[in-house]
Design brief:
201 residues, mainly beta, UDP N-Acetylglucosamine Acyltransferase, domain 1, 9-stranded mixed β-sheet, 7-stranded parallel β-sheet, globular
């Protein structure tokens, strides 16, 4: 029999949320209605997963990460402590005529985190934006535009400063277009700002 999720008593998990097998939801975390969290995930203390958010398998949301709807986090992604995903292009508490805004007065926009990507502690990701496969966002960065696959981005606003492989290490440059992972030996080729892993037959 496959073990179900482990949800700490102080966590607030909606009966309408779906939590995968072997996923651990820590103290004071909140998972809202219609959110889907995959298998083998860790949802850290005080983390927030908004209504309808989709989180894949083997993901880590560290303590106090705020993942607002309609975010999508693919398999194997890492969301560091106190990371914030926004979802409103024009945030206001009130409408132009002074009424308190409701959910009907705005349209949520998404942050999408692709497979294996990592977002460092206290980074802010301003939707709508996509963080590519195996990319890495440095701690404290503010992401305001899409991040390519394998890119290492840092700063305010975040800019690409290098490339990283799936092992997380910065890639070593071999020549103008070729790179290598110092941990796995995997090769990569850059062309017009796009990095692709070399395929060996």
């Amino acid at each position: 029999m496959t073990p179900g999720p482990r949800i700490q008593a102080s966590a607030d998990v909606s009966d309408e949320a779906t939590i995968g097998d072997r996923t651990l939801v820590w103290h004071l975390a909140q998972v809202r209605e219609h959110a889907v969290v995959g298998d083998d995930c860790i949802i850290g203390r005080g983390a927030y997963v908004g209504p309808g958010v989709r989180i894949g398998d083997r993901c880590k949301l560290q303590n106090h990460a705020l993942v607002y709807e309609p975010a999508v986090v693919e398999d194997g992604a890492f969301i560091g402590p106190a990371v914030v995903f926004t979802n409103d292009l024009m945030p206001r508490a009130v409408t132009a005529d002074g009424r308190l805004k409701t959910g009907d007065d705005w349209e949520a926009v998404a942050v999408v985190v692709r497979e294996g990507a990592s977002v460092g502690a206290r980074a802010v990701v301003v939707a709508p934006v996509t963080i590519g496969r195996w990319a890495m966002v440095g701690a404290g960065s503010v992401v305001t535009r899409d991040v390519p696959d394998y890119a290492l981005v840092v700063g305010v606003p975040a800019r690409r400063v290098g490339w990283v492989g799936p092992a997380g290490a910065a890639l070593e440059r071999l020549d103008e277009h070729r790179f290598r992972c110092p941990r796995t030996g995997a090769g990569f080729v850059e062309s017009d700002g796009v990095l692709l892993e070399e395929l060996h037959q």
